Amino acid sequence: MMNLNKNKGQVGLLEKIGYGLGDTAGNFVYQSVLLLLGFFYTEIYGLSTTTVASIFLVVRIVDAVTDPLMGAIVDRTNTKWGKYRPYLIILAVPYAIASVLVFTVPDLGPEGKVIYAYATYTTLMLLFTATNIPYGALTGVMTSDPKERASINATRFMFATGGGLIVTSLVLPLTTYWSDPAIGYRNAMILMAILSVILFVICFATTKERVKGLVSEKGKGNFIRDIKFVFKNDQYRLVALATLLMVSAQTIKNTTQLFYITIYVEDAVTYSALFLSIWMIGGMIGAQLATKVLDIMDKRKAYIMLLYICAIISAISYFVGNTNIILIMVIQFFVGFFNQMIAPIWFTFTADAVDYGELKFFKRMDGLTLSFTLFSLKLGLSIGGALALTIMGYYGYVSGGVEQTLKATNGILFVFAIVPAIVFVLTALVVSLFKLNSKTIALNAVKLQELRAK
């Protein structure tokens, strides 16, 4: 049997860092949407929770079409720079501009502002799709070694969380620098946009595509048939479902973080940026230690264990009073630590499922498969955000900075602590159905190396 270490394409530290900086750039927007947009739309922009929930959900209808289309386009791309890397540099500037427009409050009437919010958020998500599908698929072709992929993704998610740390530690303070918070959010995002372009260029320049599939997809295939091919892969169907549930849980918790710290914790102005930044610091450490967990545990078992830990820690928050700020911050650190320790492990399962499908059907489609992972992620992002805001509305939360009732504040605590815990447990139950454990994944990689050599 062929040794996997031969011709697998070793990835150096500089390349891993360069690749990780691409997700730092992407997370300037992703974490801003995840952590700040719900709060920005309701408290700064002036939309109701119902309107914001509808925006988050309606845009997913567009994604249902555009995500797989983009995946198919990427799989059929062939340039001298590769299949995936060119999109990072071509779309960096439009993506940056769209991120600023989303966090800009236009001088329009109520209906005009709603239309503007729909239009700019839709545009941003389209460009998020067009950059993140090729970026995510790039992992699968930088190396064919599962351990190297895990190492790449550990570095990636450490830098991704670093992007979130910059958002929480820099963007939030900047929003208060100007007397008008709307101007503060816009100017802070202008700075993030400029930095993201620079980092995408570095990512393009430092990465390399090495792995070629068993079948070249250039000019071949039928779009509908290709979609059917992706979902013939029983292991990928489970990966997509687990992604949807896990991101929904994380988004429910992240959407309510600012509401929780603003309403439930005394002296929220002092602690808001610190509260979110501690999550990011914990996440950076957790992401980097993910490979250490895989050295001593099976990948599937590690994923399940971490999901249960996330559920327990989230539920603990429900029983912490608003006077014990130190305990609140300690819990927040470990929420970030274990959430981001999951991320590198979770993301490699898409590439593992692609390997499984390639071995089973003799066809490799990284881009299209990754597009459905991204769609599952964004659907989870929208369902989680919409569900959090809808439940808050049910409990009587009123936007606009007004004083909330006791029922409304209790509702925020319930959504922040208990609802994510339930969804984390559901995710763990889905992951327990995976056939892809560490032994199977390594064996599949070796078999593919042998086939490619022939």
From TrEMBL:
NCBIfam families: gph. One of its GO terms (molecular function) is symporter activity. The lineage of its organism: Bacteria, Pseudomonadati, Bacteroidota, Flavobacteriia, Flavobacteriales. InterPro entries: MFS_2, MFS_dom, MFS_trans_sf, Na/Gal_symport. This is MFS transporter. It comes from Gramella jeungdoensis. Belongs to the sodium:galactoside symporter (TC 2.A.2) family. Residues 1-435 form the Major facilitator superfamily (MFS) profile domain. The chain crosses the membrane at residues 44-63, 84-103, 115-137, 157-178, 184-205, 238-263, 269-290, 302-320, 326-347, 368-392, 412-434. Keywords: Membrane, Transmembrane, Transmembrane helix. One of its GO terms (biological process) is carbohydrate transport. Pfam families: MFS_2 (PF13347). GO terms for cellular component: plasma membrane.
